[in-house]
Amino acid sequence: TSRVLYNGSCPVCSREIDHYKQLSTTLEYQDLNTTDLDAWGVDKESAKKRLHVEHNGQMLIGVDAFILLWADIPRYRPLAWFAGLPVIKSIAHVVYEYVLAPTLYLINRNK
């Protein structure tokens, strides 16, 4: 199985993950605030900054994590395929890494 690590104290993150939980049957979801982060090999601040998914022993972070998560949910598989296209993935990576993730982190860093 794959595990998704998310920030349950972030209202945007938890709302999005709650939506995915309803649609996903094979992923295990763990709130970084209530799980053993040592088992993930990540510290709390790093975990708060980006979505993490562990799949077959490999850690996927950011856009790669979202692509795997979306690929697990039938209605999101087309989005996973589209986001995985090289040009789109490059653009998505820049937007996520330099706009979305830092903004959510700054808003929620003290929660």
Count of DSSP-assigned helices: 6
Mean pLDDT: 94
For the termini, the CA-CA separation is 29 Å
The main sheet comes to:
4 strands, mixed
Which strand order does the major sheet show? 2-1-3-4
Question: What proportion of the residues form beta strands (DSSP E)?
Answer: 15-25%
Find the count of extended strands (DSSP E, 2+ residues): 4
Percentage of helical residues?
55-70%
Question: How are helices and strands ordered from N to C?
Answer: EHEHHEEHHH
**Radius of gyration using CA atoms only:** 13 Å
Question: Judging from the principal axes of the Cα atoms, what is the shape?
Answer: globular
Low-pLDDT sequence parts: none
User: What structural category characterises the helix and strand content?
Assistant: alpha+beta
How would you characterize the overall build of this protein?
The chain is of the alpha+beta class and 111 residues long. The protein contains six helices and four strands; from the N terminus they run βαβααββααα. Strands 2-1-3-4 form a four-stranded mixed β-sheet. Helix 1 links the parallel strand 1 (2-6) and strand 2 (27-31). Helix 4 (63-71) packs antiparallel against helix 5. 25% of the residues are buried. The mean pLDDT is 94.
Give a concise summary.
Helices cover 56% and strands 16% of the residues. The protein has 111 residues and is an alpha+beta fold. It has a four-stranded mixed beta sheet.
